[in-house]
Amino acid sequence: MIKLNAQQLRTSEVDPEIAKSIKKNPITIILDNVLDTYNVGSIFRLADAVAAEKVILCGETLTPPNSRIKKASINTWQWVDWEYYASAAEAISKLKNQNSKMQVIAVEQDPRSKPFTHVSYDFPLAIIVGHESKGVSKEALDMADLIVELPMWGINVSLNVMVSCGIVLYEIMKKVESRE
Questions:
Q1: pLDDT tens digits, residue range 159-174?
Q2: What is the C-alpha to C-alpha distance for residues 151 and 142, in angstroms, rounded to an integer?
Q3: Residue 128 lies in a domain
Q4: Does some domain include residue 142?
Q5: pTM, rounded to two decimals
Q6: Which domain holds residue 103?
Q7: What CATH number does residue 74 fall under?
Q8: Has residue 135 been placed in a domain?
Q9: How far apart are CA 114 and CA 98, in angstroms?
């Protein structure tokens, strides 16, 4: 196991050519009005960890360069491709127009949602996470092909947006890799 000290954990510099050479998974992460810049930065870090193709920042979500995004992302925002759209609905429309096979999955508590472990995932896919209090917008939920949620067995009724995104993405990677 590799053990890193605090300085090594917070410093990620990479040759741009190395970043371009990494095989990307056909995953797009859509942030629908995610306000906490630490969540935004952490999701960039998560996108790098799963080799996602792109992060799309929407609505009121702040964009790089931003000191708090930089810090939380440990600079991964510099090599993870990202775009900005005025709304998640606009981003979803564009993605589906570019690729009709794009599976759009919202992570949200909703009467239509299914347990995240009980569904089949296929590439290419886009995963949508939403505002820390309001969740994924109604427009984005209505455009999603699938809505998944994580079970909550305790008193609290939800998890942090980045944590939820990470759990679902690693489940997706596990299921897709097991079929390859």
A1: 999 999 999 999 999 9
A2: 21
A3: yes
A4: yes
A5: 0.90
A6: 23-150+157-179
A7: 3.40.1280.10
A8: yes
A9: 27
